[in-house]
Amino acid sequence: MLREKSRDQSGGRALALPAGTTFAAGSQEVARVTFNTSIVTNPTPLYARVVFVDQPLARQVSDPLAHSLTAAFVAGTIVLMPADLEGDTSPRPGGNRTLTLNDWVQAGRFAAGLDVPSSESEFQRADCAPRSTSGDGVLNVMDWVQAGRYFAKLDPPTAIGGPTSPISPLPADPSSTREVRAPNVTAIQDLETAVLVQLNAQGDENALGFTLRFDPARVQYTRATVGGDTAGAELTVNGVQAGSGTLGMVLALPTGQAFVPGTREVAKLYFVPKSPVTGSTSLTFGDGPVLRAVSDPAANGLAVNYLDGQITVNPPPSLRIAASATAITIGWPLWAAGFEVQTSSGVWPDANWTILPQAPQTNGTELILQLPVVNETRFFRLHNR
Questions:
Q1: Residue 263 belongs to what domain range?
Q2: Which regions of 122-169 does DSSP assign to beta strands (E)?
Q3: Over the stretch 125-167, which tens digit does the pLDDT of each residue have?
Q4: What is the domain count for the chain?
Q5: How far is it, in rounded angstroms, from Cα 27 to Cα 240?
Q6: Does 254 share its domain with 352?
Q7: At what angle do helices 141-151 and 101-111 cross, to 10 degrees?
Q8: What is the pTM of this model?
Q9: Nearest to 377 by CA among 353, 354, 344, 342
């Protein structure tokens, strides 16, 4: 039978065997006392003394006849060892038991595939989401978001745990109404064009990551920026394999924020179609170096579907000019709507080209301008805006 009485940091314990019985000779374990301790982030161990006192219960050992026995009560020591922390990824490779901005940045580099953990311990610290299980064996944007939550002190520090090596990620959910897509775009040889990556947001998305694959023989990747709906977001691009047609990126809003519901432009990826390529080339989402994932502000993974796109490449457009007694008709392909018509009185190097103010009409295949005939020499050209 064990009786207990506690007060503040002292605890009283009374233990008795059944009447008339005694402990066997030798060392005997008579009780186990459990303590809750704070995480130790010191570089060296901490020591806590556990001593016997006479409050609230006096120290005493009794025989079966209620006679006091001589006994020595020996104090002990609890050694609190320093703990490695979830999300403590910087400095590499061992961390420093402090959660700072550097850890959030390094977690983003792991999520983007720019760096790879060099040990089981480093993987454990980097793989910090979901927090409830100390990771899931996958390094993605959820870990980046969770590292940001630790840095922002939205979640308390947590000792490392969970998987020590990667596992295969779950596939994307094609039935989800949340979508990340690369819309189809039209481009022109040798001219940079932007692919606007869009998120069909439900209002609870904080970060996303993906890999985009393309044909490097047909288009060349040049740069990436945040999209029009992601001002203030942090964008990390992995272009190490861009020359072979693989591009990875992770993007996160500030900690705690989420996208407004609706179609949101999250990133702009720029490509230059190569000459003499024409026709369509695919843009496909995949995993590696960046795993496809979307995270909410609490570092929970969200179901999402990824929709591929394509770039349709056209040759440089040319003007069609036809004159009658009363008008000049200028036409150019409808797919070259990004061009404007300019005019000048000469073609010398310092000629002054001006934009025609008229708005073009369309017949379904061409953009068309109708200009009056004037008694002067005029030259026309298409200019990319």
A1: 179-314
A2: none
A3: 999 999 999 999 999 999 999 999 999 999 999 999 999 999 9
A4: 4
A5: 64
A6: no
A7: 180
A8: 0.79
A9: 344
